[in-house]
Design goal:
heterodimer; A: 698 residues; alpha+beta; Aldehyde Oxidoreductase, domain 4; 3 domains; seven-stranded mixed beta sheet; six-stranded mixed beta sheet; 18 helices; globular; B: 157 residues; Ubiquitin-like (UB roll); DNA polymerase, domain 1; 2 domains; five-stranded mixed beta sheet; 16% strand
Chain lengths: 698, 157
C-alpha cells in the first residue's frame, strides 16, 4: 500500500510564516491607480439620475456604457449585470467604478456622487421561483398511500459568510489590447471566460493569473468574475495599472454567501415503523441574481436522504430570487442545509415513534449496492457502521448520552452521519469542464505541473506535487507548480466541488505516468491529459436520474456541548470525527481540512449569525459577524479510514467539503439533548434556545 | 504634519507625515513592509499584528503618533531571530499553515504570549491567540505548534 499519506512540510509554509508570501493587496506597481465601487443604496427600484461632482484631474468614472461586449457576468444564466444600468435589484449593487491615482481622492469622489432613485417594492420572502427541479425514485405516491402514518417537519437555515481573512481583490494592467488581471481567485478560467465575453475580445487578449489566495471557501469561485469584468472594463478606458481591493465591510455586504434555505420533509412510515418514502421540498434564497444557485439547489436535492437509503422519494426544489445580496458557492454547496434537515428529521421521526435514535438510524443507513437518491448505485464499499462504532468509542457516546439525557443536565452529545458527492454534479465534469492538464519536463529534469488548480490554503500545491513525485519516483524538490496563469496552463477546471485531488490529481498522475514511461534524461518533454468520465457513469440531467457523482466520501461527527442555564450560551466542549476520503494524500493536510471544515460546520449550527434588514446586511464586519476564535473552538480528534477509490490518484476521493457538511446537525442534536427541546432552525442562538425552553409545544 | 521618531526593526527612524494615519498604512505603503496584513481594518482579526516593546498590537487601529519613541518590530525583523526559528519549525511540523494570511499575525501573537508567559497551558495558549482569527485551521494545529515551540524553545523566552 502507498505511503503517500505520510506528511511532508508544505511547500509554501516557510514563505507564509515569514510574511514573505505576497497576496494581491501586497502587490505594487509604480504609477498604479486605485478603483472604488459606487453602489446602490436601495434594494429595488430604478436609477432616476446620477450627478457627478466636478472630477479632479486624472479621475475617471467607469460604468455600463463603457462595456464593449455584454453587460453580463458569464455564469449559467444571463441575469447578473457587470454594472447596473437602470434597474436596481439589491442594496450594494455595483453601478460604477471611480478610478484615480490617489486613493483618498477617489474615495472623496465616491462620497460626493449623488444618485436619485425611483423606489419599487422589494421582495424578501421566498416566493419568486426562477428555477424549479423535480425528481422521483421508486413510487413515492403508492408508498404514501400505504403508509401507516406520515410525519412532516420544516427546517430552516440562515446565511453563512465565508469570512476568508483576505478580502477580495485584483490588480490589473493593460498593454496594447491585452488585459492582464492578477487576483485572489479559485477559478482562473471562469474569470477569463467572463472577461472575454464582457470585453467582446479575442481570448488571447485576456490573461488571468492567480495571486496567492488568503482563504476562499467558495467565496472566490464565481464572485471574482464580477470584479474581474469591472476592472477589465476600467483598464480598457483608463489604460493605467489599477488596483481594486475590497475593504472588509464592503466584502461582507456585497459578496455571495451561503443560501438561506427552507426545507420541508415528509416521511411515510410503514407497518414496521420503517421509513418507506420521503417527500422533500428544498427552497433556497438565491438573492438578487441566479448565479450558481441552480447548481447549489441540485446538490442539496441530491443529498435529500444523505447517508440513508429510502426506497421511494419525491424531491422538489426551487431557487427563489429576492432583493438581497446574491448568494453563491460556499464549501458544501447546498449540502450543509440539506444534511442539517435530514439529520434532524431522522432524529425527530425516531422520537415521534419512541425509537432508539441510534438503532433507528442504523436501520436506514445506506449500504454498498443500494440505489442513491437519483437511482444511481453506491458502487464502492461503505464503511459507515465501523466508522460510527469508532466515533462512539472515541467519544464515549453511549455512556455520555445516558448521563446527559437526565433532565436538567444542560449537557448534550450529538452525532451526525453524512456523505458528500465528490466532484461536479451529474455530467458537469464531462460536458462542461472537460478538464485538461499539461506536464512539462525541462532540460534539468524538473517537472512542471501546468494546471489551473488553485492552492487557496487547502494544500493543493503540496498534494498534487506529491502525486507527481510519487508516480515519477523523483524527489519533491524536482517538481514545480506555479500559480496558474491562463497564458501558460490549460483549463483544468475551477478549484471547487472537492474535485481537485480526485479529478485534477488523477489527471496529474496519468500525465506523470506518461512522462515516466517515455523518460529521456535531459530532454524537454511535454504531455497532456484530459478528463474521461468513468464508463459506469450515466446521468440524465432532465430527470435527475443516474450516478450524480463518481464517488462519495463519508463522515461521522460527534459534538459535545454545555448550555449555560442562565444565558443559554452554548459552549462546544469536544469534537470527534471519522472520515472516509478514500486515501489521504497527506495526513497533516487532510487533518487540517478536517479541523477547519468541522469548525466552520459546527459554527454554522450555533454561532454564526448573519441577517439582513430591509435587504441590507446587518452583520457586516468581523465584530458583528462572529466566527470561532481559538477559545470558542473545542479540541478535535479525527480518525481517517482508508477506503481507496479505484479511479482516484492512490485512491483519493474528495475531502474539503465533507468536513463541513455534518457539523451543524451534530451540534444541533447535542443542543437538543442538553435542553430537551427540538431544534428546527440554525443557527441555534441563545435567543432561539430561550424561545424553545419557554415554549410548551415543541 | 508631525515628525514621529521610533525604532523600527532595530533602526531609529523618523517620519514626517500626518500623525493620525493608521500605522498599518504607514507600514505597508510608506515602509513597504507587507508582512502585516489587513484582514478587517477594525482590530478584530489580528492579521496586522506587530510587536511594540515586545507586546502584540493591532496596527490597523493604531495611529502613527502612538509609536512615537517606541520600539516597533514586524514579522520581517522577527523572522531573523532564534525564537522565530523555533516557532517556524513548530508551525511547519504541526501543519498549522493553510492559506497563510493570518499566520504572520499568529507568529507575532505566539512571540508576545511566550514573552509574557514562557510556559502557557493549553487554555492560556488559546486565550493568547484569541485576538487572531483564522478561518482555515480551526486553530488546533496552531495551538499544538505553540505547545511544541514552548517545549523546544525552553530557555529562549
Amino acid at each position: 500500500m502507498s505511503t503517500i499519506n505520510r506528511s511532508v512540510p508544505k511547500v509554501d509554509a516557510k514563505d507564509k510564516i515569514s510574511g514573505k508570501m505576497l497576496y494581491v493587496s501586497d502587490l505594487h506597481i509604480d504609477g498604479m491607480y486605485y478603483a472604488k465601487t459606487v453602489r446602490s443604496t436601495i434594494s429595488k427600484g430604478f436609477i432616476k439620475s446620477i450627478t457627478l461632482p466636478e472630477l479632479p484631474e486624472e479621475v475617471t468614472v467607469v460604468d455600463y456604457r463603457d462595456i464593449p461586449g455584454k453587460n453580463n457576468v458569464k455564469m449559467i444564466f444571463e441575469d447578473w449585470p457587470v454594472f447596473a444600468e437602470k434597474a436596481i435589484s439589491h442594496y450594494g449593487e455595483p453601478i460604477m467604478l471611480v478610478v484615480g491615482p490617489n486613493k483618498a481622492i477617489v474615495q472623496d469622489v465616491v462620497n460626493e456622487i449623488d444618485i436619485q432613485y425611483t423606489l419599487a417594492e422589494p421582495v424578501f420572502d421566498m416566493v419568486n421561483s426562477v428555477v424549479d427541479y423535480h425528481f422521483t425514485k421508486g413510487n413515492p405516491e403508492s408508498a404514501f398511500k400505504n403508509a401507516k402514518r406520515t410525519i412532516k417537519y420544516t427546517y430552516e437555515t440562515g446565511y453563512q459568510e465565508q469570512a476568508y481573512i483576505e478580502p477580495q481583490g485584483f490588480i490589473g494592467t493593460i498593454e496594447g489590447n491585452k488585459v492582464h488581471l492578477t487576483g485572489s481567485i479559485q477559478a482562473p478560467y471562469y474569470v477569463k471566460n467572463a472577461v472575454v465575453e464582457t470585453l467582446a475580445c479575442d481570448p488571447s487578449d485576456v490573461r488571468i493569473v492567480q495571486a496567492n489566495v488568503g482563504g476562499a471557501f467558495g467565496g472566490k469561485e464565481e464572485f471574482p468574475s464580477l470584479i474581474g469584468c469591472q476592472l477589465a472594463v476600467a483598464l480598457k478606458k483608463v489604460k493605467k495599472p489599477i488596483k481594486l481591493i475590497y475593504e472588509r465591510e464592503e466584502d461582507m455586504e456585497v459578496t455571495t454567501k451561503r443560501h438561506p434555505a427552507k426545507i420541508t420533509m415528509e416521511a411515510a412510515i410503514d407497518e414496521n415503523h420503517h421509513i418507506s418514502a420521503i417527500k422533500a421540498h428544498v427552497g433556497i434564497d438565491g438573492g438578487a441574481f441566479t448565479g450558481l444557485s441552480s447548481v447549489v439547489l441540485s446538490r442539496a436535492m441530491i443529498a435529500a436522504t444523505s447517508a440513508y437509503t429510502i426506497a421511494h422519494l419525491q424531491v422538489d426544489g426551487d431557487v427563489y430570487l429576492t432583493n438581497t445580496v446574491p448568494n453563491g458557492a460556499f464549501r458544501g454547496f447546498g449540502a450543509p442545509q440539506m444534511i442539517f434537515a435530514v439529520e434532524m428529521f431522522m432524529n425527530h421521526i425516531a422520537k415521534d415513534l419512541s425509537k432508539d435514535l441510534h438503532a433507528y438510524r442504523l436501520n436506514h443507513l445506506a449500504k454498498q449496492h443500494d440505489l442513491t437518491t437519483t437511482s444511481g448505485t453506491f458502487r464502492d464499499p461503505i464503511l459507515m457502521p465501523q466508522m460510527i462504532e469508532k466515533a462512539c468509542e472515541m467519544s464515549d457516546y453511549h455512556h455520555k448520552k445516558t448521563l446527559y439525557e437526565r433532565p436538567g443536565s444542560y449537557k448534550g452529545i450529538g452525532m451526525s452521519w453524512f456523505l458528500h458527492g465528490c466532484g461536479f454534479t451529474g455530467s458537469g465534469e464531462a460536458e462542461h469542464i472537460k478538464a485538461k492538464v499539461k506536464l512539462r519536463k525541462d532540460e534539468q529534469d524538473n517537472v512542471h505541473l501546468m494546471i489551473a488548480a488553485v492552492d487557496m490554503g487547502q494544500g493543493a500545491k503540496t498534494t498534487l506535487m506529491k502525486v507527481a513525485a510519487e508516480v515519477l519516483k523523483r524527489p519533491l524538490e524536482t517538481i514545480h507548480f506555479d500559480n496558474p496563469d491562463t497564458d501558460q496552463v490549460p483549463d483544468s477546471g475551477p478549484t471547487v466541488a472537492s474535485r481537485t485531488a480526485m479529478v485534477v490529481g488523477g489527471l496529474v498522475a496519468r500525465a506523470a505516468k506518461q512522462i515516466k514511461d517515455n523518460w529521456v534524461d535531459g530532454k524537454v518533454q511535454t504531455v497532456h491529459e484530459s478528463y474521461k468520465q468513468p464508463e459506469y457513469m450515466s446521468w440524465d440531467q432532465a430527470t435527475f436520474t443516474g450516478d450524480a457523482y463518481p464517488a462519495y466520501s463519508w463522515g461521522v461527527n460527534v459534538v459535545e456541548v454545555e448550555v449555560d442555564k442562565a444565558s443559554y450560551e452554548v459552549t462546544v466542549k469536544n469534537i470527534w470525527s471519522v472520515y472516509d476520503v478514500g486515501k489521504s494524500l497527506d495526513d497533516n493536510i487532510v487533518l487540517g481540512q478536517a479541523d477547519g471544515g468541522t469548525a466552520q460546520g459546527v459554527a454554522y449550527g450555533y454561532l454564526e449569525v448573519m441577517r439582513h434588514k430591509d435587504g441590507k446586511i446587518v452583520n457586516k464586519n468581523m465584530t458583528d459577524y462572529v466566527i470561532p476564535t481559538a477559545v470558542d473552538m473545542a479540541k478535535t480528534e479525527t480518525v481517517l479510514f482508508d477506503n481507496p477509490f479505484a479511479l482516484g490518484p492512490y485512491g483519493a476521493k474528495g475531502a474539503g467539503e465533507l468536513t463541513l457538511v455534518g457539523g451543524a446537525p451534530a451540534v444541533a442534536t447535542a443542543i437538543e439533548m442538553a435542553i430537551n427541546k427540538r431544534i428546527y432552525k440554525i443557527p441555534a442562538t441563545p435567543e432561539y434556545l430561550m424561545e424553545l425552553i419557554h415554549s410548551d409545544n415543541n | 504634519m508631525t515628525t514621529i521618531k521610533f525604532t523600527f526593526n532595530g533602526k531609529a527612524i523618523e517620519l514626517t507625515t500626518d500623525p493620525s494615519r493608521r500605522f498599518l498604512d504607514v507600514l505597508r505603503n510608506d515602509l513597504r513592509h507587507t508582512g502585516p496584513k489587513e484582514g478587517c481594518g477594525e482590530g478584530e482579526c489580528g492579521a496586522c499584528a506587530v510587536l511594540i516593546n515586545g507586546h502584540i498590537v493591532n496596527s490597523c487601529i493604531l495611529p502613527l503618533a502612538n509609536v512615537h519613541q517606541q520600539e516597533v518590530m514586524t514579522i520581517e525583523a522577527f523572522s531573523k531571530t532564534k525564537r522565530y526559528a523555533i516557532i517556524e519549525e513548530a508551525f511547519i511540523h504541526e501543519g498549522s499553515v493553510q492559506c497563510g494570511i493570518c499566520i504572520p499575525g499568529m507568529i507575532i501573537a505566539t512571540e508576545s504570549l511566550l514573552n509574557k508567559n514562557p510556559d502557557p497551558t493549553e487554555s492560556e495558549i488559546r486565550i493568547g491567540l484569541s485576538g487572531n482569527l483564522c478561518r482555515c485551521t480551526g486553530y488546533n494545529m496552531i495551538v499544538k505548534a505553540v505547545q511544541r515551540a514552548k517545549e523546544r524553545g525552553r530557555g529562549l523566552w
